[in-house]
Amino acid sequence: MPKSKRDKKISLTKTNRKGLVLKQRIMEDVKKCVEEYNRIFLISIQNTRNTKLLELRTEWKDSKLFFGKLRIIALGLGKSRETEVAEGIHKLANALKNHSMKGQCGLLFTNRPKAQVIEWAKDYEEMEFARSGFVTPETVELPEGPLPQFQHSMEPQLRQLGMPTSLQKGVITLIKPFKVCQKGDVLKPEQAQILKLLDKPLAVFKLLLLGVYTKKHGFKKLTIPDVAKENDEEEMDVENNDNT
């Protein structure tokens, strides 16, 4: 009987005992998921938030989401033909490593149909408050006049953030027009805080599917045309085989 690829041992150097145990546990979890789930999606996350990730884990409790520790996850998959834990999965490991250098990404292990996952990711997006460093998609300006949405006690805070305010008859008032941000600006912390106080979300929390791995077809990059053709012949072939 041939030796299982999952039994291969990988050396982790330059780490303390506690860190070593955690890394080994993550790698074992990854290997176990490769065996248990039919599909692995490579996901890019735009404007990520911890609360949103927790919501996703709840929504996909029949699946498994991996975010963070991407180098260890890639090691668990195997980054070469010699170390991979399943046929062709080293291509997914290297794609994960490459995309992690460009931004937030992770893996979704699931048995749900490919078409369902693609449709869900295509429709899933929620508005979020922008953080510092975010490039604003629009200009936000406030006219001169009262700001009744704020309690009078917040006037010092608004002024400290750079807003030209004063208290007039107990109401916070802009003494002149104020531009919070210009389209294309890279937000500063003060601007991001003002937008949050104004209840003005400009960022979109969204998931992009970058690729999918199956044991039969290996790793395949997903592009916009692939998403549009989610019911192509290959998809039907995969579903028929995975559901038997």
Automatic annotation (TrEMBL):
<keyword id="KW-0690">Ribosome biogenesis</keyword>
<keyword id="KW-0963">Cytoplasm</keyword>
<dbReference type="GO" id="GO:0005737">
    <property type="term" value="C:cytoplasm"/>
</dbReference>
<dbReference type="GO" id="GO:0000956">
    <property type="term" value="P:nuclear-transcribed mRNA catabolic process"/>
</dbReference>
<dbReference type="GO" id="GO:0000027">
    <property type="term" value="P:ribosomal large subunit assembly"/>
</dbReference>
<comment type="subunit">
    <text>Associates with the pre-60S ribosomal particle.</text>
</comment>
<dbReference type="InterPro" id="IPR040637">
    <property type="entry name" value="Ribosomal_uL10-like_insert"/>
</dbReference>
<feature type="domain" description="Large ribosomal subunit protein uL10-like insertion">
    <location>
        <begin position="130"/>
        <end position="199"/>
    </location>
</feature>
<dbReference type="GO" id="GO:0006364">
    <property type="term" value="P:rRNA processing"/>
</dbReference>
<dbReference type="InterPro" id="IPR043164">
    <property type="entry name" value="Ribosomal_uL10-like_insert_sf"/>
</dbReference>
<dbReference type="GO" id="GO:0005730">
    <property type="term" value="C:nucleolus"/>
</dbReference>
<protein>
    <recommendedName>
        <fullName>Ribosome assembly factor mrt4</fullName>
    </recommendedName>
</protein>
<dbReference type="InterPro" id="IPR043141">
    <property type="entry name" value="Ribosomal_uL10-like_sf"/>
</dbReference>
<comment type="similarity">
    <text>Belongs to the universal ribosomal protein uL10 family.</text>
</comment>
<keyword id="KW-0539">Nucleus</keyword>
<dbReference type="GO" id="GO:0003723">
    <property type="term" value="F:RNA binding"/>
</dbReference>
<dbReference type="GO" id="GO:0030687">
    <property type="term" value="C:preribosome, large subunit precursor"/>
</dbReference>
<dbReference type="InterPro" id="IPR001790">
    <property type="entry name" value="Ribosomal_uL10"/>
</dbReference>
<dbReference type="InterPro" id="IPR033867">
    <property type="entry name" value="Mrt4"/>
</dbReference>
<dbReference type="Pfam" id="PF00466">
    <property type="entry name" value="Ribosomal_L10"/>
</dbReference>
<dbReference type="InterPro" id="IPR051742">
    <property type="entry name" value="Ribosome_Assembly_uL10"/>
</dbReference>
<dbReference type="Pfam" id="PF17777">
    <property type="entry name" value="RL10P_insert"/>
</dbReference>
<comment type="function">
    <text>Component of the ribosome assembly machinery. Nuclear paralog of the ribosomal protein P0, it binds pre-60S subunits at an early stage of assembly in the nucleolus, and is replaced by P0 in cytoplasmic pre-60S subunits and mature 80S ribosomes.</text>
</comment>
